[in-house]
Specification:
Oligomer: single chain
CATH architecture: Alpha-Beta Barrel
Strand content: 5-15%
Radius of gyration: 18 Å
Shape: globular
Number of domains: 1
Strand order of the largest sheet: 1-2-3-4-5-6-7
Number of strands: 7
Largest sheet: 7 strands, parallel
């Protein structure tokens, strides 16, 4: 979502120059593993995360893990993701649940989701790769998305019963769906393997909306969160022009 002014492979170069130490994105699958790995190596970047293949993204699909008629495709996607993760040195991948088909029984969709997650968590664990699931707001960004709240996700994790399944907690999405960000993060810190940010409304840079990011940064430090925080926002203008928030916290970290 950042540096989209440039072609995908060129974004690694500008991200490194801007001071980022790691990168994440929807998926690397339009390029060969070697092409992506060479950009990471050239820029000294860590591949932090990417998604399992999520279906026809250009056609509006946002994951296939709840779709009963796509189980074989889902399993093939797990194998494809493993190939890329091993080539890129990536230790975790995210599973997008997908949009619920109109009129489908939610419990039946959850059953499919649980079985797919059981398969993926076990298969990825054998390769030393963590599996994450992400809650996304259905009010603004993806109407009809199946997995929309923390308690719903925790219930699914309980049903799957795997020690290799974690939450990806997107502050922007959860501010829209449920609020109470700090208390929710603290309560579930042991299950959260990755955090993403954007401000609300607009899904722009931190500091452009209602979320108290200075408080959240300090709060995460006090909690001892040691994972990555991904900048998954839509720049209000040019990406590099909007990185003042990042330069500020990077400067504070360097001075500490």
């Amino acid at each position: 979502m950042l540096f989209t002014e440039r072609a995908f492979l060129d974004r690694f170069d500008v991200a490194a120059r801007a001071g980022f130490k790691g990168v994440e994105y929807i998926g690397p699958y339009d390029h060969t593993p070697d092409e992506v790995a060479s950009r990471l190596k050239r820029n000294g970047l860590e591949q932090v995360l990417f998604n399992l293949p999520a279906g026809n993204w250009a056609g509006g699909e946002r994951g296939i893990a709840v779709l009963p008629d796509r189980v074989e495709e889902f399993r093939a996607g797990v194998e494809k993701a493993i190939t890329y993760a091993k080539a890129l040195g990536c230790g975790q991948v995210n599973c997008l649940a997908g949009i619920a088909p109109e009129g489908a029984d939610p419990r039946s969709l959850e059953d499919v989701f649980v079985e797919n997650l059981k398969f993926a968590a076990e298969r990825l664990e054998r390769e030393g790769i963590r599996l994450l699931v992400e809650m996304i707001n259905s009010k603004v960004d993806i109407p009809g998305f199946f997995l929309t709240g923390t308690e719903q996700a925790l219930g699914i994790l309980e049903r799957v019963g795997s020690g290799n399944l974690y939450l990806q907690y997107d502050i922007y999405h959860m501010q829209i769906m449920e609020g109470d960000l700090a208390r929710t993060i603290e309560k579930n810190l042991g299950r959260i393997a990755h955090i993403q940010l954007a401000d609300n409304p607009g899904r722009h840079e931190p500091g452009t909306g209602e979320i108290n990011y200075p408080f959240l940064y300090d709060f995460l430090d006090r909690l001892g969160y040691s994972g990555w925080i991904g900048a998954e926002y839509k720049p209000k203008s040019d990406t590099e022009a909007g990185l003042g928030w990042f330069r500020e916290i990077a400067g504070k970290a360097a001075a500490a």
